[in-house]
Design a protein that fits this description.
Layout lengths: L4 H8 L8 H29 L10 H22 L4 H14 L3 H6 L1
Length: about 110
């Protein structure tokens, strides 16, 4: 998602070390969207790992804990790549909610 020009102008005028409130909201939205994507992917990967033969790691609470950690690590890596489009879609919705525009208005511009 491209940042609006007005956001850059508020950041570059005056003190450049300060982050404008609009830019902070965008960054918070990006972080929330990526965290949601990682959580969603973690659950999906965990379900997929349930069908994989884990060999010596199979069975018991330890295996479930290990699978959960593995699913979270894989999901975090997938989310950091940003290729699924989940975070982008969520970020678009968050941005539309914050600005009061509909998603169709935002995607058509």
């Amino acid at each position: 998602m491209e940042l609006p020009e007005t956001t850059f102008q508020t950041v570059t005028k005056g003190k450049t070390s300060e982050v404008g409130p609009q830019l902070k909201e965008i960054r918070d939205g990006q972080r929330a969207a990526q965290e949601f994507e990682a959580m969603f992917l973690s659950q999906a990967v965990d379900e997929m790992l349930k069908s994989v033969d884990m060999g010596a790691f199979a069975g018991g609470e330890t295996a479930e804990m290990w699978r959960s950690f593995m699913a979270q690590a894989v999901a975090d890596q997938i989310a950091q790549q940003g290729r699924t489009g989940i975070a982008q879609s969520i970020q678009t919705s968050i941005s539309a909610y914050q600005t009061g525009t509909s998603q169709s208005e935002e995607t058509s511009s």
